[in-house]
Amino acid sequence: MATRSSAKSVSVRRSGSASSEVLSRHALNRALLARQMLLRRVELPAAEVIERLVGMQAQIPNAPYVGLWSRLEDFHPDELVRLINERRAVRIALMRSTIHLVTARDCLALRQVIQPPLDRDLFRNSTYGPLIAGIDMPALIAAGRALLDERPRTPKELGALLHAQWPDRDATALAYAMRNQVALIQVPPRGVWGKSGQTRYATAESWLGQPLADDPTPDAAILRYLGAFGPASVADAQTWSGVPGLRAAFERLRPQLRGFRDERGTELFDLPDAPRPDADTPAPVRFLPEYDNALFSHADRTRIIADEHRRFINENRLGIRTVLIDGFAHGMWKITGERGTATLTVEPFVPLAAEERDAVAEEGVHLLTFAAPDAGARDVRFAQIA
User: What value, to the nearest 5°, has the Cα angle with vertex 272 and ends 269 and 273?
Assistant: First the structure.
């Protein structure tokens, strides 16, 4: 178990600079948990929570459902299903060129801001970059849009049809280029709880009936990021978004922001009135789904996972689900089903105290009730990490 630091926020004088308030690792943790709605569940509409989080990472289609359950009182999957089916929430490649669940409004507002990492992912990609080098991109985009205006298509279908027009190009690379150069939404039933379906693309403009915002400046997105993940550094914001060179935007925003330092001396920025709970605020056990943004949106992730524990989720492990104990990632979890019994297996990074095991088991039973409502029996087990 990571050792709790006794340091709280203090003010220090640094040579050549104004007084800067230093925030301890635990203070940063509690600020993050408060903004992520992980200190206590909230009674809000799911759409409002998704916007407060500036989207939820969603490569795994069911992950946002678990993420919302961990943050909302009495969340039921049908609420998000309705948002998706009614086109009020969508799944689209955004921050870090990864699939995110966002509201329709945020899809239109954020997509142009996030174009730089999508460009980098395509043109610097060692697999696809060489295969689309030198192509007439405007012509490709026009052809792809025309095909998708006819009806939503799978990447394979789209690639094959584009390959017929560019027979010297790889079909998969052509479809990937469209995915990164055009705002493509993954339409339902993909992402609908209890259903499965192939990825099928539609353009955001046709699916939502509105054009994308044409302002690529990141200032508004940075303010949104700080509201959900701050206090944070320039590097943290760049890690979250995948957009490089954000220093100039932070300097523009500096008069609106409050400054801090972390214990390593890194400059942090925050919204002046954003919540920053006391470092000793109790934090309940919470189960996070695969790739939850609370865990992956800072360059310095020690505010939520100790450096010595990162190896458990970084070493060739895909789709890792984590459990927070006292606010920090301290284990992994999975649910399996056999003969009518749903079993939650928790693998702690280090041995847990009895009261910690009891708290994990109690919250785990609630998770099983949500995730496996039809199970005849439910069981929570602890296992040594593999």
Answer: 130
Closest CA to 145 of 206, 208, 190: 206
Cα–Cα dist 109/261, whole Å? 31
Task: Give the whole-angstrom CA distance, residue 269 versus residue 237.
Answer: 10
* 3-class SS letters over 14-37: CCCCCCEEEECHHHHHHHHHHHCC
Rounded distance between C-alpha atoms, residue 350 and residue 331, angstroms: 8
Query: 88 in helix, strand or coil?
Result: coil
pTM of the model: 0.92
Q: Please say whether the beta carbons of 183 and 92 come within 8 A.
A: yes
* Distance, CA of 50 to CA of 38 (rounded, Å): 14
Q: Is the peptide bond before 351 cis (omega within 30 degrees of 0)?
A: no
Q: Which helix (H) or strand (E) holds 105?
A: helix 104-110
Q: Which residues of 136-172 are buried (b: 16+ CB within 10 A; e: fewer)?
A: eeeebeebbeebbeeebbebebbbebbbeebeebbbb
Q: How many residues does the chain have?
A: 386
Digit-by-digit pLDDT tens for the chain (386 residues) are 443 333 344 433 333 334 479 999 999 999 999 999 999 999 999 999 999 999 999 999 999 999 999 999 999 999 999 999 999 999 999 999 999 999 999 999 999 999 999 999 999 888 999 999 999 999 999 999 999 999 999 999 999 999 999 999 999 999 999 999 999 999 999 999 999 889 999 999 999 999 999 999 999 999 999 999 999 999 999 999 999 999 999 999 999 999 999 999 999 999 999 999 999 999 999 999 999 999 999 999 999 999 999 888 775 466 789 999 999 999 999 999 988 999 999 999 999 999 999 999 999 999 999 999 999 999 999 998 87
Half-sphere exposure of 199 (CA within 13 A, CB side): 18
Nearest to 99 by CA among 175, 210, 187, 160: 187
Maximum C-alpha span of the chain: 68
Helix (H) or strand (E) holding 328: strand 328-338
Q: Give the strand pairing for 258-262 and 20-23.
A: parallel
Sign of CA pseudo-dihedral 86, 88, 89, 91: positive
